[in-house]
């Protein structure tokens, strides 16, 4: 099939490269010329394991990029993979999506009516229920097009994670096709047929309505975020009783109804999506007159975990004027992404206390330096610990598990672990956040 994808960022580029690898002819459309040039030169514009190889193999061939929306005229379907950031009040900002939809409409309207099937426009981005219906389809139609004759719309949300995006896309737990027209459903089946054939096992397809598909994405992300907040709540109780929350989590995870994943308690969830998507669906629900109590509590608890981490440190040392090591800056291991990382409230809390911060991350240091140019950055965890009067662990990088004699170099070896990555050992004052 000939496929176009508007937006060549984390999702757009990953999906495009994987679809090209599965045999489709794919073009991405982006306003950023550097991204377009990179893809055409066979270079991935973003860092994801396995993506460099795919873009190197197909870039400039079955995978192309362009700044020209007219490219969609040579394709059967267009996916919208544009950003859906938050407004100041947490609600979803649809300006990029509406601009993209309008440009698609203008391109389609400029084409000769060939009598072919209507062009399918698929919302890949995460959008609150009814966005495709109420905000995107009308923008496409604004160019003088008729829905059902000139174009169709559908929702096909994406569940890939950063750091494992290629593997997640190629072997998804499910595919969700939200449509209101059999022709759209059939086109999505054609698009994913090679993926389902190549995938490791059976890939279930959920055929549903457009708004249901949009909501499934929020339900998925907010369920997982809330699962982490719940295990953090349970972990905080465990800490009060001197109980090991990880032993408790391992045991409850054996119950199939609970499941073993996403039970790692600690300093909380961050990243480009859980925080923004939770805020967006809470704001959208409130707009409709419903206040989601559990989700609001999940956010509140997530905001409190970094404060609990710092108050554990306060229990052992007055950090004012002292050198304090912050180990881990990325929002999770395996990425240099610092969007909504828990390291930010930790750093700000330490700054408020007047601490002298020395931070270390294997890959995210440069991104954090842009945000906090004035704090000290160490070249290694070992260097960060030298002469420190306390250390806090924010990201569960494997390399932190190997730290041992390095703690002997601390002035006062107080270690507060927000991710259960350091073993308790003689010679250090160790506090686990939930154990
Ligand atoms: N990053 C992730 O792991 C996941 C993200 N999502 C969702 O996917 C959507 C996209 O997210 P990302 O790929 O992370 O965003 P991103 O910010 O990495 O990429 C968006 C791209 O769109 C381009 N762009 C902006 N306006 C444009 C326009 N008018 N026309 C053409 N290109 C334009 C930008 O230059 C950028 O390259 C969001 O709704 C996000 O919530 C869903 C699942 C996973
Ligand atoms: O919509 C999205 O963008 C994506 O959001 C998440 O993916 P991602 O943000 O890449 O990262 P996760 O691996 O889910 O981790 C999110 C946060 O939760 C934290 N976490 C995760 C698991 C756990 O047990 N405990 C825990 O604190 C991580 O440290 C991290 O800060 C979802 O897992 C993806 O399915 C989804 O597509």
UniProtKB/TrEMBL annotation:
Pathway linked to the protein: Nucleotide-sugar biosynthesis; UDP-alpha-D-glucuronate biosynthesis; UDP-alpha-D-glucuronate from UDP-alpha-D-glucose: step 1/1
Protein name: UDP-glucose 6-dehydrogenase
Family per record: Belongs to the UDP-glucose/GDP-mannose dehydrogenase family.
Enzyme Commission designation: 1.1.1.22
Active site feature: 273
Domain UDP-glucose/GDP-mannose dehydrogenase C-terminal: 325-424
Catalysis: reaction(s): UDP-alpha-D-glucose + 2 NAD(+) + H2O = UDP-alpha-D-glucuronate + 2 NADH + 3 H(+)
InterPro entries according to UniProt: 6-PGluconate_DH-like_C_sf, NAD(P)-bd_dom_sf, UDP-Glc/GDP-Man, UDP-Glc/GDP-Man_DH_C, UDP-Glc/GDP-Man_DH_C_sf, UDP-Glc/GDP-Man_DH_dimer, UDP-Glc/GDP-Man_DH_N, UDPGDh_AglM
Gene Ontology biological-process entries: polysaccharide biosynthetic process; UDP-glucuronate biosynthetic process
Pfam families: UDPG_MGDP_dh, UDPG_MGDP_dh_C, UDPG_MGDP_dh_N
GO MF terms held by the record: NAD binding; UDP-glucose 6-dehydrogenase activity
Annotated positions binding substrate: 159-162, 217, 262-266, 270, 332
Transferase keyword on record: no
Entry keywords, A to Z: NAD, Oxidoreductase
Highest rank taxon of the organism: Archaea
Residues the entry annotates as binding NAD(+): 30, 84, 126, 162, 276, 339
SUPFAM superfamilies: 6-phosphogluconate dehydrogenase C-terminal domain-like (SSF48179), NAD(P)-binding Rossmann-fold domains (SSF51735), UDP-glucose/GDP-mannose dehydrogenase C-terminal domain (SSF52413)
Matching SMART domains: UDPG_MGDP_dh_C
